[in-house]
Specification:
By secondary structure, the protein is an alpha/beta fold. The chain has 23 helices and 14 strands. The strands form 4 sheets. Strands 9, 10, 11, 12, 13 and 14 form a 6-stranded mixed beta sheet that branches. A 4-stranded parallel beta sheet has the order 6-5-7-8, covered by helices on one side. It is globular and about 90 Å long.
Amino acid sequence: MSRVKEAFQENGITIENVPRKGIKLEASVAQRNDMYNHMQELAYSIPETKEYRKEYILKTLFEYSDNYTVQLFAEDLFVSKKIISRDLKEIEEFLLRYNVRLIIRRNSGIMMKGNEFDVRQAMISHYNSLWWYKKYDEKPDEVDLRISRRAWTYMNQMYGDLDLIEMQKALLLAEQELGFIWTDIAFSRLLEYIVVSKRRIQKNWIVETANNHMLLPLEDIYIQAAGKLLERVAGKKAAVQEIQYLAARIYIAETVCPRISKNSGRFQVSVRRYLEQVGYITAQKDFSQDTELMQKICETLSVIQYKENYNIADWNDSNREAKKNISALYGVCLMQMYILEEGTGLKFRQDDIAQITIFVKNYMARNRKEAVFVTATDAESAFYQLEKLKNAFKNIHFLETVHYQRFNLDLYPDRLIISSVDLKQKNAEVYKINKHVNEEDIARLAREFEKESECRKSWRKLFYDELMWEISARDKADAVGQICDTLKAKGYVSEDFEEKLWEQENRTATSIGNRTALPHVFDEHVKKEFIAVIKLKLRILWDHEEQAEILFVTAARPEHIPEVSGFILEYKEIYSKDSKMMNLMIGGTKKC
């Protein structure tokens, strides 16, 4: 530890041991970035490190056709064959995510086996994972504005042997011919894919359809655009499957205008059911009646279908943003995904759920109830009171503040009227409050505005005092195992509960941000329904880089999912008001 401290101190960073708390690192953002760059540079430049070996092996497999043996890698890297074999196991796990197998034949060689399209995706993912450098190059003037300095620096360093500007011109021409405008992320991703494709085609590594897999058809406009784009980039007419897979990537790429699709209508029944449920939980009755919202989600499902069919690995990490800013709504949308899963047969990733959540959130923002605040006070006091109301009711759009002497109800049809004076209006939706807009007013208005969302009030019947406890766990598997054992011992779940819980986690990770996760089982055969609250003494990795310290473990029949979802919408307020949960959050309950 002393050597670590010395290394950090050389970079101006102080490390201290804080009694009973742990190790504290004091550094600015710039210092942290510089130190991270330094450590990454060391890891990937010193032959003795695992990172260096894995990078060397993967680059060799991606870039060269000669079959390397374990012995040759061991000699090149000055390590034993046993160490190389261990590295290859980790590499194999990585490649399998993209349906690429690592074939190791004794005394013959090591090779990758899989569709060339999947190999390219694995290659792009690997190169992206290596990108740790935080200092970016200046962009030439001709680089499209959608490509950030970071993206340009990355591509220039990874693929600098190719003419990136010329390939960008080909992509811009395709965009013009299609009449599309790709988003910044989509434009950069398409550019990198065609750059990698050119490199692979030059080596005669051509995309083919694996195992006679039936590919979904695409509109001619996508096929023609992909064919022309590849011909411009590679300098020759491309193979049919090369065109087909690029066309699929063009189809699923995000644009600022609607996609050209004739297939999304098949999802309308499932989407309507889904929106009806989400609308019921959030007290938004008009969800399923909104044609634009329906169409956006149907188009998203069509894109997901093509991603599955073509095995396209595409990501934008939108789930991180959604979990950070609208975690409760994300949790509600996640809880209802079983409706879309059953109705469409699709599998949903976290980015997919985030996209649907954002659609729902945007609809709610655009269709907020509109209100007018009527007062008898001065402008400054009225402004202050209005800010109280705005902060308390995010789902209401306050149009303006009006002094009662200038107020005319006829000018505000179909608006909520919140007034600190007695207007004595008949046949109007007027809510009388105290002139100081105190907490009692806000609480009463909250009850009035949320009358329709009964599921947000009935979740407590799923709580039991004995299902709130704290545990110490090494990792996710350990936490799930401990929780399931306790629930079985208390008689709440059957022997197969843990297996069903993992089935859901393997379909879609249940983290919702704010270090919270919702592992759940929704099954018509659940006998005893509950919501268990478990606090982890130390945070654990729940999904990739996402940690968890609070788990809401749930078992419920499908008809009671709204109650569970109602709890998710309420949970932030619950923590601040429920003393038992407050005790749990600060570790005041006993361990189980």
